[in-house]
Amino acid sequence: MRRITILLITLLGLSACAMPDPVWAPDEAVDRARVSSSGAPTLTLFSVINVKSGNGGHSGLLVSAPSERVLFDPAGSFQHPRLPERHDVLHGMTDAAVDFYIDYHSRESWRVVRQEISVPAAVAEQALALAKANGPVPNAFCTNSITAILSELPGFESIRSTMFPENLQADFAKLPGVSTREYHDNDPDNNGYILARGI
């Protein structure tokens, strides 16, 4: 019961899982922003973790498929006028946009864990299709929606359904070939003033 109470407090404290209204960008905005990665297809899990408690506050999934690179940011508050969104899928995810996403979440109370794994092109395209078809995610269901997508992909059968970002992070770490990086800065918790340049 204590763990559930801590989770609820954490989710309320971090606004990352608090965007209530679904968004649907127009076709021309999505087409104009569309980018694809020149590198190998990858899936990248972002976990936002409380520095003091180690509990998770948010999860996001970057899908770098041959056809397009998008961020599935379920129930997330992250946004930028040059990154059109459709039902929690943000288009136009250049390297600069990814850096901005990390900086947006990294602050004095929260660190960001980035876990990346190379996948076959077909798996990346499947993940892309599942993310686009998912629809808007209810508040606090960010991690659960990502586990639902991952569990349908070949090679990700070990990913268990969970509501806790730290549990998904632990499962993802066990996948063969995962590379991990962590980000933490001293930005104040009310870091809404951050400006994104170069996106």
From TrEMBL:
<feature type="signal peptide">
    <location>
        <begin position="1"/>
        <end position="25"/>
    </location>
</feature>
<keyword id="KW-0732">Signal</keyword>
<protein>
    <recommendedName>
        <fullName>Lipoprotein</fullName>
    </recommendedName>
</protein>
